[in-house]
Design a protein that fits this description.
The structure is a single chain. This protein has two helices and two strands, in the order αββα. With 76 residues, the chain is an alpha+beta fold. It has one domain. A two-stranded antiparallel sheet has the order 1-2. A hairpin with a 4-residue loop joins β1 and β2. It is elongated.
Length: 76
């Protein structure tokens, strides 16, 4: 339950940050290996923050799923 509450609070804080960040209309150029892209700073920050948030959740759940397997392996 504590985990869900923490995730909810972080999600609300991210939404508030995105709302404040949407006030910035300056364009930046992102250089990829094979392409370039122009987007507002707020969009880039929102995109990469959300990507980090999702990757963090996935990694945390992955470790949570591995923990019982490790216990079974150490036990047997």
């Amino acid at each position: 339950m504590k985990l869900y509450f923490t995730i909810f609070v972080m999600f609300v804080l991210l939404i508030i940050a995105f709302i404040f960040g949407s006030q910035n209309e300056q364009l930046i150029t992102l250089n990829y290996l094979i392409a370039k892209s122009n987007m507002p700073v707020a969009m880039a920050v929102s995109l990469f923050t959300m990507l980090g948030f999702v990757l963090g959740i996935v990694f945390m759940l992955f470790l949570k799923l591995l923990r019982p397997l490790k216990r079974k392996r150490d036990k047997g």
